[in-house]
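Case study.
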Amino acid sequence: MFIAMNRFRIAPGKEGEFVEIWKKRDSHLKGVPGFMSFNLLQGATTDECTLFASHSVWESRQAFEEWTRSEAFRLAHAQAGQTKNVYLGPPNLELFEAVI
Amino acid sequence: MFIAMNRFRIAPGKEGEFVEIWKKRDSHLKGVPGFMSFNLLQGATTDECTLFASHSVWESRQAFEEWTRSEAFRLAHAQAGQTKNVYLGPPNLELFEAVI
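After joint prediction, the assembly is written out as follows.
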């Protein structure tokens, strides 16, 4: 199992807007080989920002990497970053391999 | 759905030892109300350390919090931190609520 998490620092007060962006978005993940599940996660809120993370689970690192090279990936990311006042800086991608 | 991740910074060369600690550990999670799944995840390696994260999925924040107050939690953590040369600093707990 392989997990890809993209961490987003969202400006205070913009949390609802950020979640709406994701609700309206077509992830194009359905039917992608090796794709298992997707969630948007809300983490801690500090004075500075609220942490969110996209959380996708894959059968393997290879399945994830093949998706990043696919047309489905290009379509899903064509609209990214169009509402810049919501984000405090670029997202931070973290990749994890399940060892247990 | 609720996800608890505890992030560990592990000393270079100690990755195998760290994974073995977790393989031998009795998590006491089986049968805990609201518990869904557990994985140990291996993340990126830098010059400084390798990132690992325990990753447990729960039906709700309430189920996770009740577990942290239980005897099962106390038993699972009784042995924690006994091999300190493996860890670079204390772990960092991050809690996430699935909003999508």
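Observations recorded in class. Strands of chain A lie at 2-10, 35-45, 50-58, 92-98. The radius of gyration of chain A is 14 Å. We will return to this complex in the next lecture.
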